[in-house]
Amino acid sequence: MKLFVDNLTNVDFSYLHPQRGLLGESWLVQLVLDGRLNDQGMICDFGIVKKAVKAWMDKHIDHALLVATGLPRLQHARQDGETRIDWLYPDGQHFYCRSPEQAITLVGEPDINPHTLAAWCKEQLLALFPDEVQGLELAFVPERIDGAFYHYSHGLHQHDGNCQRIAHGHRSKIEIHLNDQREEALEAVWGERLRDIYIGTRSHLISEADGMHHYRYDAPQGEFELKLPAQYCYDIETETTVEQIAQHLAVAIKQEHPDSDVQVRAFEGVGKGAIAVA
């Protein structure tokens, strides 16, 4: 007998891709439990399943930076409650992140993709359930997006929750209207401009030397620090909430199309976002 839960939750996180570097991602979580019926005629109560899996995902995956320990050119260390990541892009450029240890999850796999991450999570999740649960199938599924989207990472140092983490992210679609007409070609242009980007706040930027952007800030969870090549950064004057990103994009598009009324629907992961006009 099997019990399934489709779209149990979704996780928004960033990870280090072996070629592309820091990559924001959003995946839906699908779960199947295999087992025998208990005295109540259940494998496991749906409420228990949802609560246990979501709590584990929130702690270890959601709003974290995931780093595969088998990644080439990687060095990592944990000390005094912090995790430090040093990694080289294939072209030799440098990536560095220092965060409180709960903000970075070290995954014992050669790389991060839906299959390797599901395999890594599987055994740890199985221990959460009663003896009636004898097997578990887990799948991470990217949202199907018809049209333009972009992967972005960011950090919100004024946020009380896990959004304060300096390198977490999303895979997000974008919709642009000029004079109430959908402009898919323009969406594709902005999707490409923001491809695999780190959206930074200028007040967090402490150095731009040697083609690198160096960000640092203090937040309730601790001190956060990030360095990566400037070519992967897009800085704005405000905090990088989805509301502020949407407004920034609307203003930037208005400058390029001054005779048009602009509306931007900027998504933050799956099924949520902000609308801004200019």
Automatic annotation (TrEMBL):
Signal peptide, first to last residue: none
InterPro entries noted in UniProt: 6-PTP_synth/QueD, 6-PTP_synth/QueD_sf
GO molecular function: 6-carboxytetrahydropterin synthase activity
Primary enzyme class: lyase
Enzyme Commission number(s) of this protein: 4.1.2.50
Catalytic activity: 7,8-dihydroneopterin 3'-triphosphate + H2O = 6-carboxy-5,6,7,8-tetrahydropterin + triphosphate + acetaldehyde + 2 H(+)
Pathway: Purine metabolism; 7-cyano-7-deazaguanine biosynthesis
Family: Belongs to the PTPS family. QueD subfamily.
Name of the protein in question: 6-carboxy-5,6,7,8-tetrahydropterin synthase
Organism the protein comes from: Marinobacterium aestuarii
